[in-house]
Fold this protein.
Amino acid sequence: MESTFSAEKCRTWAKNGGKHPALIVIHEWWGLRDWIRQDARDLARHGYVALAIDLYRGKITDNPQEAYKLMMSVPRERAITDLKAAFSYLARMKGVNPSKIGSIGWCMGGSYSYIAATHLRKLAACVINYGNVGTTKEEVEPIDCPVLCNFAELDRTYTMKMGRAFEAAMKAGGKSIEFHEYAGVNHAFMNPNDPGIYDKAQAKLAWKRIYSFLDRQLKP
């Protein structure tokens, strides 16, 4: 597994010492671009050891057709192995509290954050930003951690119908779910690199909810 780390994590450890909560940060279908790296840095400044994994093994693109090809070229089992390896890597780190490791992702990364919750039984929290999710009680049965979902009202890829079905399945199974719908925005509304879709106000609200959720679930 090839990975990248937030440079701020060492400063966080040096400043505070002790054990820190950690996050597996999962990129969109574009690959591990600068925005995701910056998200990892921001999470680190907020007190998390942020590990941004690279499911594409170094490949990135800004072409939607190429992004689709890259996404479809990732073997599911290899991606699951990468997620497990990322969790194990963080859990072994001297400055990480292994009982406080979560996942966060956007678009394709949101889908893999969901997959992380279904395959990493010791995951402590999961954030899904407009990703592919299960819609039945059976599909969500493996999830043991609290989940936060941010879905866009106008998203035609990961629709509100899918999101609400996931929420209902989680509740039917007695799972912890916090679900938010963002009115008037489309898929990828949190990504500032797409000025035609990015919504600053809604993205700010989503981040406020993300930090509130993660702090409740992962910090003492």
